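Intended use. Records like the one below are meant for learning the mapping from a protein sequence to its folded structure. Do not use them to infer anything beyond what is encoded.
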Amino acid sequence: MPGTKPTKRELARMKVMHEIGESPTAIARRMGRSHNTILKYLRSEVFTDPDISQMVAQIKEKETADLYLIGGKARQRIHELLDGGKMRPIEAVATMDRAFQQRRLLEGQSTLNVNSLSALVVAASRDFAKMSQEGEREGEIKGKEEMPMPGARGQDR
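Structure written out for the chain above:
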């Protein structure tokens, strides 16, 4: 479709594919368009159009429902493999994991765990920095009172 503008439906599909983690190159390949065209529209303000927003919401709902179904089927397949003694469920696990990740992206929950973890890391680093500063001050005071241990670096024999 070189030289033609994408339809509203194509724009909505573009947006949803991008939101489920598809790269602009993968979207371009699937839609038969140029990588640069996909990037141009993903960066533009075209998605503020109410018609396109409504289509995006409808596609997201359908896609989310499909991903729930795929995840359920993958879980069922894992149970069948385990019950049958055929312990090669890697394909089913990979399918279930991919469906779960894409569903979380569509539902806008993919960053919840990352944000929680980031908050914990920031708090821990602040506590560590505070403890280090307090430890240095205490070490300066105690260091004057304590004698160095035998065999410690910098000590003469």
